[in-house]
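WARN retry 2 of 3 for item q-0093 after timeout on previous attempt; input resubmitted unchanged.
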Amino acid sequence: MTIPTDDSERITTIVQRFAALALSEGLTKKSTEYKARRRAFIVDEVHIGFAAVFGGNTSSLVAWKDLLRTVGIEGAEALASIKQCKAALKGKFVNIVDLVDAASAGSVMKRGVFDSEQALARYIRRTKKSYPCSKAKTNQLLRQFLIKVGK
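OK item q-0093 returned
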């Protein structure tokens, strides 16, 4: 989706891109349309972005190592198996929107990585950076990051 702005190179995150789009279309934050369009925009951008950067093959050691590097797990290159990669991620709870933002920028995550499911759930509720389980389940690699977020 093309965003009508002259500052597009400075707009780097999914949420920033939606904010620019919403502003250009005159959407107000409190409106039902804004909220629905924001949710749909995030879902589309995460789905496309995750598949483009990591793919969906849970058998790809390269994809697992890319995930680890993006999350900020040290020593990812030295890991020789997917089992080791999964073990390295154990105890890390990752916001999928922030993961895709960092991966798309070719950087390590600066926010969105937590040591508990509860902390991630609080962050998701606060930032509204969520991704529906039903959509995540269509990508076997992405589904590794699912948690339940209560209201």
